[in-house]
Write a structure and sequence with these properties.
7-stranded parallel sheet; 5-stranded mixed sheet; Rossmann fold; alpha/beta; Immunoglobulin-like; globular
Length: 459
């Protein structure tokens, strides 16, 4: 046990700027040494389980007692390292600017709020889910610090992150609040790893992690790999020590999307970590967002830059839910203003995120841009449970002769086809009711024959 490296040198501080209404935000206590280890427990049936236990519990005498009494084999895997948000308090005022710089108002304007749903998991200090700016955007989350289903933010950092995501997206981007960091802004790798698994297993498409620590962690890396293998994009902040990302984790992880911070002059923020793992940059100086208790504050940090990227990535998934994490990353790196050296550089990555020239992908527009189709009359005020009957002027051999699809702007809608060959018709019905006030397209293609497109809009 004496060979275990238990000391932690933690970083990723950021400063706080108070904004109306005036509040007092206490400094976080950065924990510099871990007091826990991650162990693998194997029971007598050979079942393995990963646990985090206090260092004192693995001293030779205690270890022998545990093993003798339970007949379990206990192997120490690594220290349970601590990640932190850390921070330094300031008292300057700043005007909102980040969302405008990124172009989130433009990308939001192109989406109806009922076009699907994307969940972003915020693994942080929890979220004040009662905040009026956030409460309509929440899905169920979890508190891995207290091990219960109430991920209320006892700090403020996670609520601020969630507010940036909410501001950057339409209402159908939901936020999954997961509390892995405590009231001082510190959290163990074991709880963060559990949080990642929870997010993936409960429907999150993206994970935002705005924290850092010095030590590389195999346990945390394995959890990140679990997310990536399930096509869940992981976005992390680069850290705020004006240092090389190579000295921090998960900022040094090249498999995730690492975000540095910029200021109002499009320069790298003086505090931002930079280095070979930087993928992209976003605003991170004086960023206004929600904090607990119906309040708002402007904060500095790469912590604030990362959720802009998470929010835009969520909108790109709304645009096309079939996009893989590789496609999302490629698109994010395309919608940038190149700064610094040409193309990639260790300060800005590919550049500052900017989606103000984004053009929405539309299945309906794509269908009408094709050739050789017959445009059927449009219908409006269609009932939400409408069933369509397609009549033919001749008997067709079997139902495979006709292919029918139903689209919204960016989704193919599941439908049920009921062929009636004898009466020369097919009945088309959605598997669930249509959304209200939404445009749809019925696409009918006859094998070796014509293609018919019919646009309709619901009540």
């Amino acid at each position: 046990m004496r060979g275990l490296l238990l000391k932690m040198l933690l970083g990723c501080s950021f400063s706080i700027v108070l904004f109306f209404p005036s509040i007092a935000l206490s400094s976080s206590g950065e924990q510099t040494e871990t007091d826990r280890v991650i162990v693998e427990v194997t029971d007598k049936e050979g079942n393995k389980e990963i646990e985090s236990i206090a260092v004192d519990e693995v001293q030779p005498k205690s270890f022998f007692t545990i093993a003798a009494s339970s007949k379990d084999e206990v192997n120490v895997l690594q220290p349970d390292y601590i990640r932190t948000i850390g921070m330094v308090q300031t008292a300057e005022y700043t005007k909102p600017w980040g969302a405008m710089r990124v172009g989130t108002d433009w990308i939001k304007s192109q989406f109806a709020t009922n076009a699907g749903e994307v969940i972003v998991a915020v693994i942080d200090t929890g979220v004040d889910y009662t905040h009026s700016f956030l409460k309509e955007r929440m899905v169920a989350g979890y508190d891995f610090v207290d091990n219960d289903t109430d991920p209320m933010d006892e700090h403020f950092h996670g609520t601020h992150i969630a507010g940036i995501i909410a501001e950057s997206t339409t209402a159908n981007v939901k936020i999954m609040p997961i509390r892995a960091l405590n009231e001082t802004g510190n959290g163990y790798d074991s709880n963060i790893a559990k949080s990642i698994h929870y997010a993936v297993d409960n429907g999150a498409s993206l994970v935002n992690m705005s924290f850092q620590g010095n030590e590389y962690s195999e346990h945390l890396a394995a959890a990140i790999d679990y997310a990536l293998s399930n096509d869940v994009l992981v976005v992390v902040s680069s850290g705020n020590k004006s240092d090389d990302t190579a000295n921090y984790y998960p900022a040094s992880e090249k498999k995730v999307l690492v975000v540095s911070a910029t200021d109002q002059s499009d320069k790298i923020a003086v505090f931002s970590n930079t280095g070979g793992s930087i993928d992209i940059s976003a605003p991170g100086v004086g960023i206004l967002s929600s904090i607990p208790g119906e309040k708002y504050a402007a904060l500095h940090g790469t912590s604030m830059a990362a959720p802009y990227v998470s929010g835009v990535a969520a909108m790109l998934l709304l645009d096309d839910p079939t996009r893989s994490i590789e496609e999302l990353e490629k698109m994010l790196k395309t919608y940038v203003d190149d700064k610094g050296a040409v193309n990639w550089d260790p300060l800005f990555g590919e550049g500052i995120l900017n989606v103000s020239n984004f053009n929405k992908h539309s299945l309906i527009t794509s269908a009408f841009s094709s050739s050789n189709y017959i445009n059927l009359p449009e219908h409006i005020n269609v009932p939400l449970d409408k069933t369509w009957t397609i009549l033919f002027n001749q008997v067709f051999s079997d139902d495979s002769t006709v292919a029918v699809k139903l689209y919204t702007e960016n989704y193919e809608i599941p439908i049920q086809l009921t062929p009636d060959l004898k009466n020369k018709k097919i009945i088309v019905s959605p598997t669930k009711n249509y959304q209200a006030n939404t445009e749809y397209l019925l696409d009918i293609q006859i094998k070796n024959g014509n293609r018919y497109l019919m646009r309709f809009k619901t009540k």
